[in-house]
Specification:
Layout (H helix, E strand, L loop, with lengths): L2 H9 L8 E5 L3 H7 L4 H22 L3 E8 L7 H24 L3 E5 L7 H13 L7 E8 L1 H17 L10 H7 L13 E4 L18 E4 L9 H13 L11
Parallel strand pairs: 1-2, 1-5, 2-4, 3-4, 5-6
Helix pairs in contact: 1-8, 2-3, 3-4, 4-5, 6-7
Bound molecules: farnesyl diphosphate (FPP).
Farnesyl diphosphate binds next to helix 2, helix 3 and helix 4.
């Protein structure tokens, strides 16, 4: 263990690890550009970072790690880049599922996967099946995911069930909305405690719009391929220094 790691471990309170961490993995393109490499080289390195950070999060006791891997807006990118990004889950799962199983990590995916290439859909399905019995950390990939799209689908689901008389208008509550969102399978862990965005951009980019109502935000200048286990620990230490009030008062 290096000195930095030792110091971080001393500052980290292992009894107050955020249950759900969500990450907007940004800066792959700029990481590559800085090295005079094609943008996709950044995505490839970004995939390696996903492996490292997933294991680090699992080791720290994080319960859900949600990663924004492809947004509903990312289709606007050049065709070659989109097709590279669509190959990444195939590459990732083909080599990494045994490690995930070893660490008892369960794979979940949210987003409209029906629009993904068939081979990507299969890789995702296989990874979900192969890790179905794991009951440690949930590694939740947002793939072809958009927060507004998710809310529109939830509204449609609720409206349909009201029309079919399966749901009573007066009974619709925030909990009802939770139940119709793509994070519903996460139950009480659906809302991230901590949202991290790399690469210095200060936006949400349509990520988990409903669920981040009370999340703590941490923005770091590091590009995603440079992010590592120590970066994750630093973010958690910052999170632990925040005073979460959820709209109330701390010392009543
Ligand atoms: C944003 O960086 C990143 C993405 C749109 C893709 C994120 C995907 C990965 C990190 C790999 C995913 C891995 C798996 C296993 C699915 P950017 O391209 O917008 O960077 P830039 O802002 O510097 O151009």
């Amino acid at each position: 263990m290096d000195r930095e790691q030792n110091e971080l471990n001393e500052q980290l309170d292992p009894s107050r690890i955020p249950n759900h961490i969500a990450i907007i993995m940004d800066g792959n393109g700029r990481w590559a550009k800085k090295r005079h490499l094609p943008r996709v080289a950044g995505h490839k390195e970004g995939m390696n970072t996903v492996k490292k950070v997933a294991i680090a999060a699992s080791n720290l006791g994080v319960k859900v790690l949600t990663l924004y891997a492809f947004s509903t807006e990312n289709w606007k990118r050049p065709k070659t880049e989109v097709s590279y990004l669509m190959q990444l889950p195939i590459r990732f799962f083909s080599t990494f599922v045994p490690d995930l199983v070893k660490h008892n990590v369960k794979v979940m995916v949210m987003g409209d996967t029906s629009q993904l290439p068939k081979a990507t859909q299969k890789a995702v399905r296989d990874a979900i099946n192969d890790t179905a019995d794991c009951d440690g950390m949930i590694l939740n990939f947002a793939l072809n995911y958009g927060g507004r799209d998710e809310i529109v689908r939830a509204v449609r689901g609720i409206a349909t069930d009201v029309a079919n008389k399966r749901l009573n208008l007066d009974q619709i509550s925030a909990k009802t909305v939770d139940d119709y969102l793509m994070t519903a399978p996460l139950k009480e862990l659906a809302d991230p405690d901590l949202l991290i965005r790399t690469s210095g951009e200060l936006r949400l980019s349509n990520f988990l719009l409903w669920q981040i109502a009370y999340s703590e935000f941490i923005f770091t200048d590091q590009f995603w391929p440079d992010f590592d286990a120590n970066s994750l620990e630093k973010a958690i230490i910052k999170f632990q220094q925040r005073k979460r009030r959820f709209g109330g008062l701390i010392n009543k």
